[in-house]
UniProtKB/TrEMBL annotation:
SMART domains: SERPIN
Organism domain of life: Eukaryota
Name assigned to this protein: Serpin domain-containing protein
Occurrences of domain Serpin (ranges): 140-501
GO process terms (BP): blood coagulation
PANTHER family named among the record's database cross-references: HEPARIN COFACTOR 2, SERINE PROTEASE INHIBITOR, SERPIN
Coiled coil regions, renumbered to chain: none
Natural source organism: Mola mola (Ocean sunfish)
Length: 504
C-alpha cells in the first residue's frame, strides 16, 4: 500500500521591519544596482500555458538553484506571445434564476435554500468569480471545522485559495467514486451544476485562469504560488495525469528518491527562498515509502494605500477575554476608510486597502463573547452584504501589529467535511497511477505579518444591516477576524483569527 503526502505551505508577509525580511525592491533587482520600482496597472494579458510552464517548471533532475520565483511569470514573453489563450473565465453565463418565494436567509441546511443563495451570488459574476465563491464557501467551512478543534484564545490562519488548488489538482488523479466525493466536498459539483455550459474540466480551466490572473506582478502587491509534484522513482505516473497537471497547474511530476537526504535539503531550501525566509525547514523528515508528494507554496506581500505612521504606534491593552489583557503595539492612523455595521451579527467591519485592488477586511464583534456567532455565520453572502453597504468617511483606526505562524494537519478536518476516500485504502486514485495509493499526510503551514507598512501575507435583502456612518473611531482592541480578498477575481486568499496578537 503506497502512501501519498500533500503538504500545503502558505506564507503572507507584510513588512521589511519584522523577522529580517528584505525590502520589496530587493526581490526584483541585483543588490549592486538601483532597485526597480514596482509598477501598477499592468495590461491584463495571460500566458500561453506551454510558455508559462517553461518558466515555472523544475526539471526532473530537481535543480532548484537557478529558479527565481519573481520571474516565473515573464510578462515580456507573455505580451510577445499575443493575446490570452483562454478568455472563457471572464464569460458571464445565463444561470437558473432562484424561485422568488425562497427565503435565502432561512435555515441553510435546506438544499433548495443553499442552491438559491449560490445562484443569487452567481448572478452577474464571471465564471472565475463564481469558482472563487465556491472556494470561499469551502474556506469558511474548513475554518469552522478547524475552529472547533482549537482553543477560543488560539490564533488561526488559513489560505483557502491554495488548499482549493491543491485539492483540485488531486482530483485529476481520482477515479469516478473518489472524484465525485472530492467535487462534492470542495463544492465544485455545485459550481458545475449551476450551468449546462460547465463540466468537470471547466473547474481545471478556471484554476489555470486563476493562476494567470492572481499570481502576477505589477499590480502594486506581490502574490506568488508554485505547485510541485514529486513521485517515488520506481512508481509510474500515467501520461494523462502528467499532462493535465502540467497544462492546468504548471506542476509536472518529478521522479525522486525520498530516501535521499539531499531531497529534503533541496526542497526546504526552495521553500525558504520562495517564502522569503519565512518558512524554514517545513519538511523535517519524509516517509521512505511515500509514493507522491504535492507541495503548494504561496507568498503575499502588500503595502497599505494608507500606511500607519510608525511614530503613532504605542503599547496599549488588548482584551483577549473578559479576564485577560495583554500589552501590544497598536498602530494608529487617521484618514478616509470604508466601514460598515452588521447589526444582525452584532459586529463592525473595516476595509483596509492595499495597493493593487486587494484588501483586508477586519470583522470586529462588539462583544468579546461575540466571536463564536460571527465565525458560525460568516459566508460569501455575508461578505457580499458587507461590501455593498460600506460608507467612506474620515475615521481614526487603531489596529494591533501582529504576526501569526500556524501549522495544521488538515486530514481530520477534510474528513469532517465529507472528504474521506482520499485517506483510505479503498480510495481510488487510478487516474494517477496503477499502484494502490492513499494519502496519510496533508499539512498546511503559514505565517502572516501585519505592521505599519502593510501585510507580508445579486441583490440581497438587507436584514438588520446599516452602513457604519456615525462611527468616527474604529478601535480593534479585542479578538477579530480578518479576510484578505483580491477583488478582480473575488478570491478569498486568506482568512484568520487574531485572538491574542502577543502570541504568534
Amino acid at each position: 500500500m503506497w502512501v501519498i503526502a500533500i503538504i500545503y505551505v502558505a506564507c503572507v508577509v507584510v513588512s521589511p521591519s519584522l523577522a529580517g525580511i528584505k525590502e520589496l525592491s530587493s526581490h526584483f533587482s541585483d543588490p549592486k544596482t538601483d532597485p526597480k520600482v514596482v509598477e501598477e496597472g499592468a495590461v491584463d494579458m495571460e500566458a500561453n500555458p506551454l510558455e508559462f510552464h517553461k518558466e515555472n517548471t523544475v526539471t526532473n533532475e530537481l535543480i532548484f538553484d537557478g529558479f527565481e520565483d519573481e520571474d516565473y511569470i515573464d510578462f515580456v514573453k507573455i505580451l510577445a506571445a499575443g493575446s490570452d489563450d483562454y478568455i472563457e473565465g471572464d464569460n458571464i453565463d445565463e444561470i437558473a434564476t432562484p424561485a422568488p418565494d425562497i427565503d435565502i436567509f432561512a435555515e441553510p441546511s435546506d438544499p433548495k435554500i443553499r442552491r438559491a443563495r449560490l445562484l443569487r451570488l452567481f448572478q452577474g459574476r464571471s465564471r472565475l468569480q463564481r469558482l472563487n465563491i465556491i472556494n470561499a464557501l469551502f474556506g469558511f467551512n474548513l475554518y469552522r471545522s478547524l475552529r472547533n478543534n482549537v482553543n477560543q484564545t488560539d490564533n488561526i490562519l488559513l489560505a483557502p485559495a491554495g488548499i482549493s488548488i491543491a485539492m483540485a489538482m488531486m482530483s485529476l488523479g481520482a477515479g469516478p467514486g473518489t472524484h465525485s466525493q472530492l467535487y462534492k466536498a470542495m463544492g465544485f459539483a455545485e459550481f458545475v451544476n449551476a450551468s449546462h455550459h460547465y463540466d468537470n474540466t471547466t473547474v481545471h480551466k478556471l484554476f489555470r485562469k486563476l493562476t494567470h490572473r492572481l499570481f502576477r506582478r505589477k499590480f502594486g502587491y506581490t502574490l506568488r504560488a508554485v505547485n510541485d509534484v514529486f513521485v517515488k522513482n520506481d512508481v509510474t505516473v500515467k501520461d494523462a495525469f502528467r499532462a493535465e497537471t502540467k497544462a492546468y497547474y504548471f506542476a509536472e511530476p518529478q521522479s525522486v528518491n525520498f530516501r535521499n537526504p539531499g531531497f529534503l535539503d533541496k526542497v526546504n531550501h526552495r521553500i525558504l527562498r520562495l517564502t522569503k525566509g519565512l518558512i524554514r525547514e517545513p519538511l523535517k523528515s519524509v516517509d521512505p515509502d511515500m509514493v507522491l508528494m504535492l507541495l503548494n507554496y504561496l507568498y503575499f506581500k502588500g503595502t497599505w494605500e494608507q500606511k500607519f505612521p510608525k511614530e503613532m504606534t504605542h503599547y496599549r491593552n488588548f482584551r483577549v477575554n473578559e479576564k485577560t489583557n495583554v500589552r501590544v503595539p497598536m498602530m494608529t492612523n487617521k484618514g478616509n476608510y470604508l466601514a460598515a455595521a452588521d447589526h444582525e451579527l452584532d459586529c463592525d467591519i473595516l476595509q483596509l486597502l492595499y495597493r493593487g485592488n486587494i484588501s483586508m477586511l477586519i470583522a470586529l464583534p462588539r462583544k468579546i463573547t461575540g466571536m463564536r456567532t460571527l465565525e458560525q455565520e460568516i459566508s460569501p453572502t455575508v461578505v457580499n452584504k458587507w461590501l455593498q453597504n460600506m460608507t467612506n468617511r474620515t475615521r481614526e483606526v487603531v489596529l494591533p501589529r501582529f504576526k501569526l505562524e500556524q501549522n495544521y494537519d488538515l486530514i481530520h478536518h477534510l474528513k469532517e467535511m465529507g472528504l474521506t476516500d482520499l485517506f483510505k485504502e479503498s480510495g481510488d486514485l487510478s487516474e494517477m497511477t496503477s499502484e494502490k495509493v492513499s494519502i496519510n499526510w496533508l499539512k498546511h503551514q503559514g505565517t502572516i505579518t501585519v505592521n505599519e507598512e502593510g501585510t507580508e501575507a445579486a441583490a440581497l435583502t438587507q436584514v438588520g444591516f446599516m452602513p457604519l456612518s456615525s462611527q468616527i473611531r474604529f478601535t480593534v482592541d479585542h479578538p477579530f477576524l480578518f479576510l484578505i480578498y483580491e477583488h478582480r477575481t473575488d478570491c478569498l486568499v486568506f482568512i484568520g483569527r487574531v485572538a491574542n496578537p502577543s502570541q504568534s
